[in-house]
Amino acid sequence: MIKIAPSILASDFSRLGEEVKNVEEGGADYIHVDVMDGHFVPNITIGPPIVKAIRPVTDLPLDVHLMIENPDAYIEDFAKAGADILTVHAETCKHLHRTISLIRDHGVKPGVVLNPATPVEMIKHVIEDVDMVLLMTVNPGFGGQSFIDSVIPKIKQTAELVKATGKEIDIEVDGGVNDQTARICIDAGANVLVAGSAIYNQQDRKKAIESLRNSSQR
Ligand code: DX5
Ligand code: ZN
């Protein structure tokens, strides 16, 4: 079963509540929230107050993607704000296992993210401890970038790693996901697709979500 996680980064922030509701009604599975700090990535977006504001608007899990230095310092704030899944970049964690444990201690599902240039070996020893692996298919920082094809072998490698655990661990892809690239990702083993522009730039979000979900059947 393929899950769709619309990224609100591409939504109209002046109508954020409606934009969240709209994709929920369109059949989204998660709401993807991109948190950027202007240090780890060259852009600043949103923080815990926005997560708190959208929490009562939707019943969907909030999939909060932390593109920030020193994520440990903010885990409690995001947990209290209502995050259901917190993903941290392996590149930002000096003690990755500790950070993952901290997220779980706060009652939130932990996930780990890898940039396109970071090898899958980085997460080999923590795979059993996470609920999600997020593979960046663009360099993080901005919506609307082009998909990086060289990540495909990493999706396959991650799928093998996950299979060997015998656990249900989501494999999510993020960046440049559209009907064409979604299909390649699903075929390689991804089961959660993040999409910003491919959903929010369309008038009919329901149709866009269905189209992404069914992309591998065409
Ligand atoms: C990029 C973000 C993505 C982004 C995706 O740093 O993590 O979630 O919003 O946007 P699209 O789907 O437009 O590439
Ligand atoms: Zn993201």
UniProtKB/TrEMBL annotation:
The keyword Lyase does not apply. Pathway: Carbohydrate degradation. It is an enzyme of class 5 (isomerase). SUPFAM superfamilies: Ribulose-phoshate binding barrel. The keyword Ribonucleoprotein does not apply. This is Ribulose-phosphate 3-epimerase. Its cofactor is Mn(2+); a divalent metal cation; Zn(2+); Co(2+). Keywords: Carbohydrate metabolism, Cobalt, Isomerase, Manganese, Metal-binding, Zinc. A divalent metal cation binds at residues 32, 34, 65, 174. Its EC number is 5.1.3.1. The active site is at residues 34, 174. GO terms for biological process: pentose catabolic process; pentose-phosphate shunt. Binds 1 divalent metal cation per subunit. GO terms for cellular component: cytoplasm. Substrate binds at residues 7, 65, 141-144, 174-176, 196-197. Belongs to the ribulose-phosphate 3-epimerase family. Pfam families: Ribul_P_3_epim. Signal peptide: none annotated.
